[in-house]
Amino acid sequence: MNKSIKIWLNYTIGAAICALLLYTIYGQVRQQATGMGQHLWVHTGPSWLLAACIALMLLNTWLESYKWHTLVSWAEATPYRTALASYLAGVAFSIITPNRIGEYPGRILYLGGRNTFRYINISVSGIVSQLAGIYTFGLMGLVYYNFAFPSPLAKAALAGCITINILIAVVYWRFDAWLPVMEKSKYLRRFAVYGRLMGRVSAANRMRVLGISLLRVAVFTAQYLFLLRWMNVELPLLQGFCLAALFFWIMAVVPSLALTELGIRGTVSIYVFQHFSANTIGILAATGGIWLLNLIVPSVLGSILIVRMKWVR
Asked: What residue ranges do the domains of the chain occupy?
């Protein structure tokens, strides 16, 4: 196959996938906007709160793209622009996958090259570090929730969160300690490569990636709190932050499809914040806003970038 045919095929396939994703995103946003109604967006608070949310969206995007650039650099020297584009493409792919599991495969697919297996291994580090951030802040939210609104379900959730936090810490920091055991198992042997790769990454670099993940969770939790206040959902600052962190932890635990998760998000948000506010409309609007800013906007940009991907090499 000559070069001109490859270029033609790449642009044709990329444009088709881009159009499909954009059409799907448009349909979902239109459906959600119609369902919520325009009255959700009236009687909002000071405009600086919305401006702060947009600024935090940009900061959130930069933090995740910087973290991804740090990770892929462990496998291969990669320009930041390429890492940013692959991150946005991954968000676009995540739109049509359960619990957004297609995000990292989408990033790797965009990067291409001969280091796919290395990218898969460092992706595990990115996923685990982000889970560590969500579960750490989720633990904080669950501790507060158990003190403020104790129940058997809340206690069970707290115990489960503590257990998972310990497992995440073992996987992230002490994965290499399990290598001898994993090497003896035919099934687990394939995962031992991750441990060997992480063994070559310094503790300082792993700490930096974990720190970025924790900071990112703090950023979009604060962003959600600002959106709630912009929609006149009155919440105490500290308690509101804990509940917002709890919301994101629940969303990480509950299975969902990115394009249909707004309905689930709305149900969860009302359940979490009902103890402090009866402003259901404001809660739903803020939940829709965080979905729009942090998922839909990047996915639109990523869909456009998919046109440039090399599908045929």
From this structure: 3-308
Q: What Rg, from alpha-carbon coordinates, does the chain have?
A: 21
**How many CB atoms are located within 10 Å of the residue 104 CB?**
22
Full-model pTM? 0.83
Other residues' Cβ atoms within 10 Å of the Cβ of residue 199 = 10
- For the chain, the first-to-last Cα distance in angstroms comes to 10
Q: Are 287 and 266 in contact (CB under 8 A)?
A: yes
CA distance 282 to 269: 11
Residues in the chain: 313
Burial class (CB in 10 A: 0-12, 13-18, 19+), 206: middle
User: How far apart are the C-alpha atoms of 251 and 261, rounded to whole Å?
Assistant: 9
What's the CA gap between 258 and 213, in Å, rounded? 21
Going by pLDDT thresholds of 50, 70 and 90, the confidence category of residue 264 is confident
Which amino acid appears at position 307 of this protein?
Answer: V
Q: How far is CA 72 from CA 66, 86, 117, 134, in A?
A: 10, 11, 11, 22
134-148, 159-173, 187-201, 278-292: least confidently modelled range = 187-201
Predicted local confidence at residue 66, as pLDDT: 94
Q: Could you tell me the two tokens for 20?
A: 């499909």
pLDDT, tens digit (0-9, with 9 covering 90-100), for 2-17: 555 555 555 566 566 6
- Residue at 100: amino acid letter: R
Tokens of 258: 């990115």
Mean pLDDT of 139-148: 95
